[in-house]
Amino acid sequence: MSAVAQAPGAAVAPDERVGLDAVLAALNFMVLRRADDGTFLRLNTAPDWSGLLGPPDCSRGVGIALAGRSGFLDNFLVDALRLWLKGAPGRICSGVWLETDSHGSDWPLEAQAIVADGHQYLIIQHLSEEYAERVQVMQSARTHLLAEEALEREVMRRTAAVRQREEEIAIRLLAAAGMRDEETGGHVRRIGLFSAALGRALGWDPVRTTDIRVAAPMHDIGKIGIPDRILQKPGKLTPEEFRVMQQHTVIGANMLGDSTIPVLRMGGAIAHCHHEKWDGSGYPRGLRGEQIPIEARIVAIVDVYDAMINRRVYKEPIPEAEVLATMAEAAGKHFDPQLLDLFMQILPEIRSILASVAD
Amino acid sequence: MMQIKLCMVGAFAVGKSSLVRRYVQSAFSEKYHTTVGVKIDKKDVTVDGATTRMMLWDLAGEDAFCRLQTTYLRGSSGYILVADGTRAHTLDVALDLHGRIELELGRLPFVLVLNKEDLAAEWAISGERITALETRGIRILRSSAKNGDGVEAIFAHFARVPTEACAE
To answer: How many Å apart are CA B35 and CA B26, to the nearest integer?
Structure first.
């Protein structure tokens, strides 16, 4: 039986075999059938590149050993053998590889292992122009992706610069307010960092988390509008003075709330609502539950924690266990209970911030 | 002669082919040439009087169009995970590939290479991230295929200890 007669499909007449050979040559195929002894019989005329993978001078139908000639092909033959030994009709493809000849030229090849009509075939194709086209398409697509990435990095760089400016504006505003307020620089920084930690724990994206880190310290910015005789009064405030003091929330909201800069707008919402309470007993509007913006609910928690646990001119620090017990009692009254739960869960991070940012 | 197979793995355009080219041919091209498929280069290295033939499998970069076939790593003595230090997400791609390789082939020696060190001003991978990876036992090397810095060290590492694990 001739080699060609054993190829897939019906037996081929001699004149048709010549035609088939020409077609395979045009396609740059080398068609091999695996013999029982593991060698391969070439079923068509050897293409000029066949020497890359086997003896170039062997005749059609003569068994050739492929192992050890190409590292890539050896690796593919492991998978091919699995397919062939299964015996069920099927096909696997190696993917493209470049076989380098003795002159250093690369030959783009692709192999397919096939089981058909109970026979095992290995078809290797030299991809030539098709490979050049694939490279061109990939080169174009990846160059485009790289340009997009570069553009995205530039946008991020510029966005970061804008945010840095926004942050500086916020810090300078805070500095102006701080000149009249007793709160320490450490307190305002910690409020931002605690709030950002809670934001991250809530799964917020980095932009929103950064926003609250910058915005939370502005919660008391409205105190800039409170008269010194009240703001700096050493003793207890009268009811009328307390009513004036409460106005710092509204003043803060008026200062920041209508800003076109998102972080300042968030600062306005926090300033307005950080004295609201979950049960509706807070001020200035008596909002309750989720009517209170979540950013303000966060700041309400971290502001109380930081104020209680640290020394102030008017009080000694309170032990953490006592602080946490007091806060736990206020869950559902002063504080959003779920947020307080989350705060308790991230206490190790909170403690780490507390330890690293001193007054 | 001992022969070892090493695979270059990573996102596209991180410099895998450039590292091989720098190592094998001492050459570098500024222009980006994408790799399609697999290209195998070889280099004989003599360490302590013993010559080792390194078969360097340069695998096409991973992206939306092209997924790494882990079967290409079969029989390798290790792999070189390459990331571009100026494109932070390429480190994510490298670590994702590392996870897939471990899942499908088990543990193999590897090193993580942060390439393009010559572009220090554009560096986008934080020291904290690098330290965290090193804490996990990942061996990290820095290189520049452009000026050759650190390139020999990547491959010499495998030439010296071809059968030892480079990372736990």
So the answer is: 19
CA-nearest of A80, A72, A79 to A99 is: A72
How many domains is chain B built from? 1
CATH of the domain at B155: 3.40.50.300
Count Cβ atoms below 10 Å from residue A91 Cβ, excluding itself. Answer: 12
Residue A209 has pLDDT above 70, yes or no: yes
CA-nearest residue to A135 within chain B is B36
Residues of B in contact with A106 (CB under 8 A): 39
Measure B69 CA to nearest chain A CA, in Å.
9
Q: Which residues pair with residue B62 across a beta bridge?
A: B11
Domain that holds residue B146: 2-167
Helix (H, G, I), strand (E, B) or coil at A261: coil
Nearest to B39 among A106, A139, A141 (CB): A106
The minimum CA-CA distance between B66 and chain A, rounded to whole Å, is 9
Q: Does A139 contact B at CB distance below 8 Å?
A: yes
Active site residue A223: yes
Kindly list the structural domains of chain A, giving each domain's residue range(s) and its CATH number in brackets, ordered by start: 14-127 (3.30.450), 166-356 (1.10.3210.10)
Instruction: Give me the numbers of helices (H) and strands (E) for chain A, helices first please.
Output: 12, 6
Q: Is A101 exposed, middle or buried (0-12, 13-18, 19+ CB in 10 A)?
A: exposed
- Can you read off the two tokens belonging to residue A332? 């559902």
Q: Pick from B38, B63, B124: which is nearest to A145 by CB?
A: B63
Residues of A in contact with B72 (CB under 8 A): 75
Name the β-bridge partners of A115: A90, A120
pTM above 0.90, yes or no: no
Enter the tokens of residue A105.
């030229």
Is the distance from CB of B98 to CB of B91 less than 8 angstroms? no
What digits encode the pLDDT tens for the residues A266-279? Answer: 999 999 999 999 99
Decide if pLDDT at A243 tops 60: yes
The answer to whether B34 contacts A98, with C-beta atoms less than 8 Å apart, is no
